């Protein structure tokens, strides 16, 4: 046994070696703990975000009812209410024409401060009365179709005849940029959609593909685009049956097999006028099949929509 004369303390060599090894191990342990990365916060499949809820829940409805009751609110007689300058839409439009606005620029300055000048008829939202029913019904249609087709923000949607975007606004807001497409023939409707609705709703960045066209010409939407949902709300009612079938023939190959859906509102006389067997045969020749009739109640007024569902059953 070796003796180390250090102030009279006697330490054996094996004990010294053991002490040095323990100290070295402790050093590396502390170093590894201090330098290791923080626990991973990556989402696992179980943690992945579930599909966003689209329609209000029963709890949502009860909540808003409780807020109305808690604030003691009652609907008053439908008369012109007091305010800074209460006006009907017609009066608002006249004010814009005559007075331009409470505060406005004159002369050359009038052209330098408004990035996207909008016609007065659109500013007072006259186009919201073009549908024969409340504008709010567009949300009802969106909720029914989006949930029936199991859409996610990455889905792609085509509307045949989107008009002034009564329904389309809700799809555009929900879907990823560029994923809402529309074919519309009416110029005034397109003006309202592009010059008022999209800018006023802050949705220009969503870049929907809205094309002016008719006769079921979908050539401008790209030949490789595949849709999760294609729908027509009260549009086929105003088309010859032959043209509707032309459209279905052109669109069948653009619908995602099995999961994709086509929805048509109100009725399907283009099909029923042929008779059940002949309609089924023509659908099957296109790779389509009829899935059934649905109704959907409005959230805000006494109304329901009738929808007919189709899907592509083969590639």
Features:
315 residues; alpha/beta; seven-stranded mixed β-sheet; 10 helices; globular; disordered N terminus
Account of the 3D structure:
The chain has 315 residues and is an alpha/beta fold. It is 35% helix and 13% strand. Strands 3-2-1-4-5-7-6 form a seven-stranded mixed beta sheet. Strand 6 and strand 7 form a beta hairpin. Helix 5 crosses helix 6. The longest helix is centred in the N-terminal third of the chain and has 23 residues, at 13-35. Mean pLDDT is 83; it is low at 1-11 and 35-49.
Overall average residue pLDDT:
83
- Which value, in Å, is the CA radius of gyration? 32 Å
Strand order in space, largest sheet: 3-2-1-4-5-7-6
Contiguous runs where pLDDT drops below 50 for at least 5 residues: 1-11, 35-49
| β-strand amount | 5-15%
Query: CA-to-CA gap between the ends?
Result: 87 Å
Q: What is the total tally of β strands?
A: 7
Helix share of residues?
A: 25-40%
Please render the helix and strand layout as text.
Layout: H1 13-35, H2 58-70, H3 89-99, H4 120-123, H5 137-148, E1 157-160, H6 168-174, E2 180-184, H7 187-200, E3 209-212, E4 229-232, H8 241-252, E5 261-265, H9 269-272, H10 276-285, E6 288-297, E7 304-312
Parallel strand pairs: 1-2, 1-4, 2-3, 4-5
Antiparallel strand pairs: 5-7, 6-7
InterPro entries: SAM-dependent_MTases_sf (IPR029063)
Protein name: S-adenosylmethionine-dependent methyltransferase
């Amino acid at each position: 046994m070796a003796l180390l004369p250090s102030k009279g303390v006697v330490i054996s060599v094996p004990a010294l070696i053991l002490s040095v090894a323990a100290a070295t191990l402790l050093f590396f342990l502390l170093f590894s703990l201090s330098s290791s990365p923080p626990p991973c916060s990556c989402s696992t499949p179980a943690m992945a975000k579930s599909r966003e809820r689209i329609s209000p829940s029963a709890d949502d409805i009860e909540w808003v009812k409780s807020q109305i009751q808690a604030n003691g609110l009652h609907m008053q007689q439908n008369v012109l209410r007091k305010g800074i300058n209460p006006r009907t839409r017609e009066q608002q439009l006249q004010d814009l024409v005559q007075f331009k606005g409470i505060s406005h620029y004159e002369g050359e300055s009038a052209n330098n401060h408004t990035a996207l000048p909008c016609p007065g008829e659109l500013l007072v939202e006259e186009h919201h009365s073009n549908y024969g029913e409340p504008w709010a019904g567009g949300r009802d249609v969106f909720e029914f179709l989006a949930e029936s087709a199991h859409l996610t923000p990455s889905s792609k949607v085509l509307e045949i005849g989107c008009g002034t975007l009564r329904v389309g606004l809700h799809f555009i807001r929900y879907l990823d940029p560029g994923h809402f497409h529309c074919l519309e023939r009416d110029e005034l409707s397109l003006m309202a959609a592009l010059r008022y609705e999209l800018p006023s709703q802050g949705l220009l960045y969503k870049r929907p593909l809205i094309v002016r066209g008719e006769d079921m010409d979908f050539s401008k939407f790209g030949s490789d685009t595949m849709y999760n949902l294609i729908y027509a709300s009260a549009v086929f009612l105003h088309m010859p049956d032959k043209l509707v079938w032309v459209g279905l023939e052109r669109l069948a190959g653009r619908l995602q097999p099995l999961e994709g859906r086509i929805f048509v509102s109100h009725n399907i006389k283009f099909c029923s006028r042929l008779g059940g067997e002949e309609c089924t045969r023509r659908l099957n020749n296109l790779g389509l099949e009829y899935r059934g009739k649905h109704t959907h109640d409005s959230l805000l007024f006494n109304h329901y929509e009738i929808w007919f569902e189709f899907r592509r059953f083969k590639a």
